[in-house]
Design goal:
34% of the residues lie in helices and 10% in strands. By secondary structure, the protein is of the alpha/beta class. It has a six-stranded mixed sheet with strand order 3-2-1-4-6-5.
Length: 258
């Protein structure tokens, strides 16, 4: 894929066209070059949100080892595992880079707990989604303020809902391009990458926690269960999302195998 002149959201080339261009070229690039190409194509702020899972650690390594000008931020919900905070600290020490945290608004958290109780998110799907909105979705809005691109660690293999996720697409609700540079990687490839580069990772992964979120909302996955079965396990819904990854609007080929 040829390098492109930077194009910002304010210029004539629409974000849709940039997303289409990135999608068409990502298949033939390794992780570092996918990120570098995204950096070249999007002139303004490009943000990667990490939750310190395996996928996010691989992307963090690719960004920081190559000194790519991509902002790395995290959403500290106030209910993270101690192990997650430990790998956060270890990652900062390994790369000599501070990862900026965005926190929930104090008044919103206090109001939610006063109304629902400290673990009231288990009462209903609506209550759980309200908790996610306070602790994750609203902080994400602030984290992405001024950005034209958002990088995530989503993979198609993680769930049926994510299986048709595009490499890059316009997220019209947020007015930016959402990029998924690990979309076509399977879990084994991510693990191999992390071990090959001696990247810090959350020890909970070795205890069956394949997808790690807030501590009270995550359990280990049982044999034969899909990767995200341990998230909000008390809910019977097949779709296990918190609201961060509302589907962006695809205007072209989307599936990994297309």
């Amino acid at each position: 894929m040829n390098a492109h002149a930077p194009v910002s959201a304010s210029e004539a080339t629409p974000l849709d066209a940039i997303a289409r261009r990135l999608t068409s070229g990502f298949r033939d690039l390794d992780l570092v070059n996918r990120l570098a190409e995204a950096r070249r194509a999007i002139a303004s702020r490009l943000v990667f949100t990490t939750s310190f899972g395996l996928e996010d650690q691989a992307i963090t390594h690719a960004i920081l080892s190559q000194d790519l000008a991509i902002d790395i931020v995290t959403l500290d919900t106030g209910r993270l595992f101690a192990e997650t905070c430990a790998v956060w600290s270890e990652t900062e020490a390994r790369y000599g880079h501070r990862i900026r945290a965005f926190y929930p608004e104090r008044a919103s958290v206090e109001a939610f707990v006063a109304r629902h109780g400290i673990d009231g998110f288990r009462a209903s799907i609506a209550a759980r989604q309200a908790c996610c909105a306070v602790r994750k979705v609203e902080p994400l809005v602030r984290a992405l303020d001024g950005a034209s691109g958002w990088i995530t660690g989503m993979r198609a293999e993680q769930s049926w809902e994510r299986a048709t996720t595009p490499y890059a697409a316009l997220d019209s609700a947020r007015g930016l391009i959402k990029l998924n540079p690990l979309l076509d990687w399977n879990r084994e490839r991510v693990i191999d990458f992390v071990h090959k580069h001696d990247i810090p990772f959350n020890p909970l992964h070795d205890e069956g926690f394949l997808s790690i979120g807030c501590a009270p909302c995550t359990r280990a996955v049982r044999p034969g269960e899909p990767e995200r079965a341990g998230r909000w396990w008390w809910e019977q819904e097949d779709k296990k999302e918190c609201g961060l990854h509302s589907r962006p609007r695809p205007t072209f080929e989307t599936a990994v195998g297309s």
